[in-house]
C-alpha cells in the first residue's frame, strides 16, 4: 500500500469527525456572536412587510447589512422557526464547504479519490475561518463556493456561467467584487453579464417588496463605509482599536496597495499565458488579502477566501513555497486563542492582532517572492544584453 493511500485512510475518519464536531457540536452550540439572528429577523420583517433597515448602528451587536437582494434570498429561512432555520443553514453551509473543497481539488488536477480531497477538507475545518463561520452561522461558505465555481468556469471559458456564482454572492455581500479585475484583464467580457446582471435582477425584484429600501442606501451604506473599532481586523479597524495615529494607518494602507499593484502586474506579465490557473488563484489571493487590509471592514473569517491561493502550493512557481507565507497563514487562520491569564497584556495583543498580522505577513511574503523573481529576471536580461 503506497503512502498516499495510507495517509488518505488515516485522514478520512479524522476529517469526518472534525466536520461533525465543528457543525453538530460547536455550530449548534453557537457563541456570543450570532450573525444568523439579524438575518432571520430581517427575513421575517421582509415577509411581514415591515421595516428591515431600522437598526441602531451605535451598538456592538451584529447588525443586518445585506442589501434588499440579499434579503430576498435569505427570506425563505423565516418560514420555519429560528432554531431549525439556523440548523438548516449550518447543514447547507457544510455542504457548500465540502462542495468548495471538491471543486478546488478538481481545479488543481486532483481526483476526489486522491489524498488531496481529505487533506483539503481537514485543513478547511481545522481553521478559525471555517469554524467561526459555522459557529457564528455566516454566509461565507457560499461566498467561497461562488469563488471556486467562478474560477473553474472562467478557466474553462464558460464565461456566461462564470459570472453567475459571482453575481449570487454579490447579491448578498460583495466581498468578491475585487475579483472582477481578473476577467477584465483577461478580456472575458461575458463574465460581467452574470456578475452584474444577477444582483441587478434580484435587486429589481426585491426593491418594491422591501418596506424601507432607501434606508439601506441612507443608513446602511454609510455605516458600511466606516472603519469600526470592534470585530474588525483591517488596518483601519485594528488601528482604531489600539489608538494608532491616522497618518500611519494611511501610510500602511498605501504601502499594501502599492505591493498589490506590483504583484498583480508581475503575475499578469509572467504567468497569465504560461500558467493561467496559477495566475488566477494567486492574483485572487492578492486582491482579496489587500481588500481585507485596506478597506473599512476585514473580518477574520474572510480568510477562507484565500484557500485557492494556498492551494497553489502544489504547483511549480507558487508564491506559497516559503515559511513566512505559511506563518502568515497560521496567523490569520489559527483556531487557537492566545489570551493568557498569566501574561494578560501580551496575550491580548497577540490575540487581537493575529489576523491583521497574518494577512500582512502573507502579503509581504508574496510581494517579496515576486520582487526577487523580477530582480532575477532583470539581472538575467542585463547579462544577456552585455
UniProtKB/TrEMBL annotation:
Sequence intervals crossing the membrane: 6-25, 87-104, 110-127, 160-182, 189-209, 247-268, 277-295, 357-375
GO molecular function: hexosyltransferase activity
Keywords: Cell membrane, Membrane, Transferase, Transmembrane, Transmembrane helix
UniProt membrane topology term: Multi-pass membrane protein
Location in the cell: Cell membrane
Pfam families per record: GT87 (PF09594)
Coiled coil: none
Family in the record: Belongs to the glycosyltransferase 87 family.
The protein, known as: DUF2029 domain-containing protein
Species lineage: Bacteria, Bacillati, Actinomycetota, Actinomycetes, Mycobacteriales
